[in-house]
Write a structure and sequence with these properties.
By secondary structure, the protein is mainly alpha-helical. The protein contains 13 helices and no strands. It has two domains: about 120 residues, Cyclin A, domain 1 (Orthogonal Bundle); about 110 residues, Cyclin-like (Cyclin A, domain 1, Orthogonal Bundle). Keywords: Cyclin.
């Protein structure tokens, strides 16, 4: 599969999982876990467009159990239908009224969950960058590298980059700590002149600057597509 088609596929299931999760009021950590499950699954399995949303639904269903924020399959199914057909209310009502359709979708999701479990080899150990991100930003404040106001701004911007990085596969190739360092590095570039960091701040925080740049470039790839230009701020972050 080409790089562009792979990115397009990831965009589809990431957006689907994000919207389903938000409508179900699922915590961000659970949504992130569901997305990583989906990345892992499609890293090992062939892509099937027909089953994309079924696999994604199974990922968020399993993630809810793993992160101890479970949702009932019936509630999940209703929201999945809503998201899939949000522009066609009549179709949603018809589909949800057909017991055969509802039962078929339930069975497909449960079957996909079993396939997911075997593909993941029952390995649910996922570490996200969020805790490392917050810890390092607090450390930067304690070292007086950044003011209190800038601490909040830096943490929020880095958090946003961490969320956006889920649309890439950096989580499959780099540790959560390395990803946290990269989004902080990226956030400092984004804030630019607002920060007055010492020259060796990366080294003093035991951050590998070369690795941060590498991962940052992988994350920046998510903002680029054939049909729209990257924003000016983002495009020149690492120039």
């Amino acid at each position: 599969m080409s790089h562009s088609s792979g990115k397009g596929r990831r965009w589809l299931y990431c957006e689907f999982l994000k919207e389903v999760g938000m409508r179900l009021k699922i915590p961000q950590l659970t949504i992130a876990t569901a997305i990583v499950f989906c990345h892992r699954f499609y890293w090992l399995r062939e892509y099937d467009e027909y089953l994309l949303q079924i696999i994604a639904a199974a990922c968020i269903f399993l993630a809810g159990k793993v992160e101890e924020t479970p949702k009932s399959l019936n509630d999940l199914l209703k929201v999945c239908v809503l998201v899939q057909h949000k522009s066609d209310e009549d179709k949603r009502l018809v589909l949800n009224s057909f017991q055969n359709f509802v039962q078929e979708q339930r069975e497909l999701i449960l079957r996909a969950e079993r396939r997911l479990l075997h593909t993941l080899a029952f390995d649910f150990n996922i570490e996200h960058p969020y805790k490392y991100l917050l810890s390092t930003v607090r450390q930067m404040h304690s070292y007086r590298y950044i003011s209190e106001d800038n601490t909040r701004d830096l943490a929020q911007i880095a958090w946003n980059f961490a969320n956006d990085s889920l649309r890439t596969t950096v989580c499959l190739h780099h540790s959560a700590k390395a990803c946290a360092n990269a989004v902080i590095y990226l956030a400092t570039k984004f804030m630019g002149a607002k920060l007055c960091l010492p020259k060796e701040w990366c080294a003093e925080l035991s951050m590998d600057e070369v690795e941060c740049e590498k991962i940052s470039n992988e994350i920046l790839d998510v903002y680029e597509s054939d049909d729209r230009k990257t924003s000016g701020d983002i495009a020149h972050l690492l120039a």
